[in-house]
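Thread: Phosphoglucomutase, structure

OP (GT): Posting the sequence first so everyone is looking at the same thing. Length is 496 residues per the record. Can we get the structure tokens written out before standup tomorrow? I want them in the notebook alongside the other entries.
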Amino acid sequence: MRRIKFGTDGWRGIIADDFTFENVRVVSQAVADYINDRNMAHRGIVVGYDNRFLSDRFADTVADVMIQNGIKVYLSGGPLPTPVTAFAVKVHDAAGAVMLTASHNPPEYNGFKFIPDYAGPALPHITRAIEENVMRLQDVGGVRVLNQEAAVELAFKPGHTGAPAPAAHATKPHIAERIIIDPRPEYFEHLEQLVDMEAIGRANMEVMVDAMHGSGMGYLDVLLKKARARVKECRCSRDPLFGGSMPEPTGKSLAGVCRWIQEEEGRLGLALDGDADRFGIIDAGGVYITPNQFLPLLYHHLITVKGLVGPVTRTVATSHMLDRIARKHGQAVYETPVGFKYIGQNLMEKDCVLGGEESGGLSIKGHIPEKDGILAGLLAAEMVAVHGKSLADLAEEVARQYGGKLYSERLDVRTTPKQKQQVLEKLQELRPAELAGVPVAERVDLDGLKLVLAGGEWVLVRPSGTEPLFRIYVETGQPERIEQIRRDLMEMVGLQ
Ligand SMILES: O=P(O)(O)OC[C@H]1O[C@H](O)[C@H](O)[C@@H](O)[C@@H]1O
């Protein structure tokens, strides 16, 4: 049996290859043991799923295993975005959630995310504990399928990994319930408090929403309609094949939205990935706005318009324009490895007003510590409405206020496992005095290797945790230097 491992964000696998009902049962049992070991069964678990092939059936399997372990299940009545599943954890004060989704992966994938009781992505010490449970279960040959009564008895037997149950329940074993939920009304109400819906309504905007056939359909489009925007829907229907592509809202995959904006002179295009935790933004004129361009605009907006003045947290790969804004307003910046789990942690512990990452994830103070593409889209609409200009024009204004424009780019390079090992070794020992003719001012080894050059330009190379490749990120105020900086670094680390 192949080992099941949690990557940057959960366990993902190809359906019917390693993502099988049997393995889903094993991972569910590992999560059930994790919850029972911490005496949290009485709080119950939320089970959500996206609209991929078989996601609802996998969710049923997860629910069965939880119930067999005496854990109450709040099972979603239909597909949910990941941030809504996370939000439901708060609504029900649950012990956590399982979300069945492979996010933006190709259609043949599915995945399993565990969201602990703080309603954000599981931190490494939590996924490690679950992986250890998985390994133990795999060593004894998987999970026995029990009937409910037998399972409850087993769960309450002293010495079983699922025991002991909380004292109140220990004397009287209960049959765990399965409750069907619809977290949409509470989630809508919450977002309507975080976003200036009135301003969006007053602007009388035409907005295109592209759900990329993912589980965000019926969320961002509906909320914008509630705000009285004129909404045009694109790919807001279920298609487990995602129209033949990946549900990833990058510039290339949003050509349809760009065309619509150009032809119809729309003000804004808002896209979501397969489980609506990531965002993609198309500005007036059909121009794709990268997350590295959008996040500083949002931080400026939060501080100057919404009165949310406070620190910011970003990953190593995210624009330092955020640092300039923080510095000007006397605020701290918390840098993390790539992965929203670290951003979520800073949102909880450092009182940050914004947490964001280059790959298209963000959340703000007052919301859950999970990335939310629906919230991001609404905030983008609010910004266009309040400032009365395109995001590109707002970016010019922000750049003028905070020391000039920055240009960032990412290149993904495929490697063989052998080459990957060699590059990783190189990264550990590499300490260059200069790069692309400029002295190296700082070496950051939080995730891969980042070199910050005198004057503020930076380059980062790191192995992806979700794909078999290295990512190389560069940011500079002089776009013509991107190529040289990247080439020099690639040469140094042997990625040519
Ligand atoms: O660059 P990678 O390691 O492939 O990770 C890219 C992204 O993967 C997932 O979507 C995580 O939720 C993100 O937090 C992360 O930024």
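GT: Both are above now. Quick notes for whoever picks this up: The pocket of 6-O-phosphono-alpha-D-glucopyranose is lined by residues 8-9, 103, 338-340, 357, 359, 361, 464-467, 471 (CB under 6 Å). The first helix runs from residue 21 to 37.
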